[in-house]
Amino acid sequence: MDLENRNELPNSLEEHWMPFTSNQDFKDNPRLMVKAKGVYYTDHHGNQLIDASSGLFCSPAGHGRKEIRDAVYKQLEQLDYVQPFQQGYNGSFELARRISKHTPEDLNKIFFTMCGSSAVDTAIKTAIAYFKAKGEGHRHHIVGRERGYHGMNIGGISVGGMVANRKTFSSILMPNTHHLRHTHLPENTFVRGEPETGDYLAEDLERIAGHIGGENIAACIVEPVAGSTGTLVPPKGYLQKLR
Q1: Which CATH code for domain 1-63?
Q2: What is the pTM of this model?
Q3: What does the pLDDT look like over 131-168, one tens digit per residue?
Q4: What angle do CA 18, 173, 243 make, to 5 degrees?
Q5: Where does the chain have alpha helices with state H?
Q6: Which region is the signal sequence (predicted)?
Q7: What CATH number has the domain spanning 115-242?
Q8: Rounded CA gap, 90 and 159, in Å?
Q9: C or N terminus of the chain, fewer CB within 10 Å?
Q10: Neighbour count for residue 58 (Cβ, 10 Å)
């Protein structure tokens, strides 16, 4: 394939191993996107497809936005990269300041990572390190939730509740992880918005604390709205009770 003509099929589909994909089926019938604009992808056959999920939920501004492209180009011209150990870039401090304006007052420190998986593992390590620095090294238990998805790093799989992922890597999962019950109740299957019933499931945290000792828990992690398991909206009052 001529890289200047990306509408062509690649010379080979064998070398690239794709995540969460039946690779052999894909090679037999490849679906390749060659460009995008607004909410539409265009495949190598010229068909347009609506990007209804914003990629992996990360491109809600749409594709091909001129103002975004120009801002990226301008930044690359000025400074493409600076390593963050013992030095920094003024733009990253300004971005952190702006983000902190949209978070609760007691969540005002920003740590940048490359993806959600590394963010979760960093959060787990930060929680454990925080209590260790306070002289409470016994706080190393982490509570997650059934059907939760927190990425594909070992920490995220350990606190997550995706059964297939946990089975595959069961021999190397983190110890001292515990799981709340999920909130997908049969009576809430066709409910719009926040279900009226199910907030009592947050009391699972008290049950776990009673079993292992609340003084040994470093953190509890749940998705406010579970995504990869089927877009599960929490019952009314659930998150408030959990917090």
Answers
A1: 3.90.1150.10
A2: 0.87
A3: 999 999 999 999 999 999 999 999 999 999 999 999 99
A4: 100
A5: 23-28, 54-57, 66-78, 90-100, 116-133, 154-159, 163-168, 204-212, 238-242
A6: none
A7: 3.40.640.10
A8: 35
A9: C
A10: 10
